[in-house]
Amino acid sequence: MSLKHSQALAIGTGGLPGALPTGAIPAVIPGAGGLPGEANLGFLEDYRRNVLAALEAVDLKLVGKAIEWFRQTRRSRRQAFVCGNGGSAATASHFVCDMVKGASYQQWARFRIMALTDSMATITAYANDVGFEMAFVEQLKNFAVAGDLVMAISGSGRSANVVRALKYANGIGCRTIALTGKDGGELGPVAQLHLHVAEPHMGRIEDVHMSLCHMIAYAFMDDAAEAIPPTLPLSESGSYKLPTQPELPGA
Fold this sequence. Notes:
Layout: H1 3-10, H2 41-56, H3 60-75, E1 79-84, H4 87-102, E2 112-115, H5 120-129, H6 137-143, E3 149-154, H7 160-171, E4 175-181, H8 187-190, E5 193-197, H9 202-222
Parallel strand pairs: 1-2, 1-3, 3-4, 4-5
Helix pairs in contact: 2-9, 3-9, 4-9
């Protein structure tokens, strides 16, 4: 059989009973119940229902507390740091993008925030030369000081590098937030503020984590009250004088 003839048979054009004309597309997907993709509707409905249930179960008072901590971090000119692995690394970078641009551009004050996931050179240098579990904590040693805010994202709560990062941050006097899933792992209890998604499915955990990050970021973008600066003294140029960080001991 020629290659051309075998290709024709493969798409149902070889004269077999029920064959379609060359290039034709089936009107329905076999086994789909009559409509293209209909067989997947049950899965999609279950997935959506489970995501919504996981989101509903999150304690919004704790999310509100996280927003307040970010608000205080911005007002006091402290820095915030975010980290995670895999999909959580992408969530960390996405969240920081929202805070650096959307929640800062043309606002009365800007966030000083960075994703420890964004320097591929730094991460791979530590992973290769020291150990992947040190990739975030060693960056914090360069930048973080007492009073800063560190947020770690982990679906399992068991990633050694984020656990080390939060333990170090606690030790130097930072505020710490964890976004976890499943049973919270080791990370949840380490954090001073734990936003827990009690869901076993990693995809749905990550869906809710991104929603929580959007709640935090858009609280500063969409809430009209955030556009009004707090009572702060004006400089001679008419701009608000933000509090400066206290001097470090021995400085």
